[in-house]
Fold DUF4177 domain-containing protein.
Amino acid sequence: MAKKWEYATVPLLVHATKQILDNWGEDGWELVQVVPGPNTEQLVAYLKREKE
């Protein structure tokens, strides 16, 4: 059976990136990519985790 995934996009504040990603990682989310956000103080993280 094929795996099924769910995805999330999360705004990252530059000064709290590790804390934000650690929190999502605790919930089983895996980081896929980080891209620039709408301004220089923000990034956007794309995350995925397997659906149960």
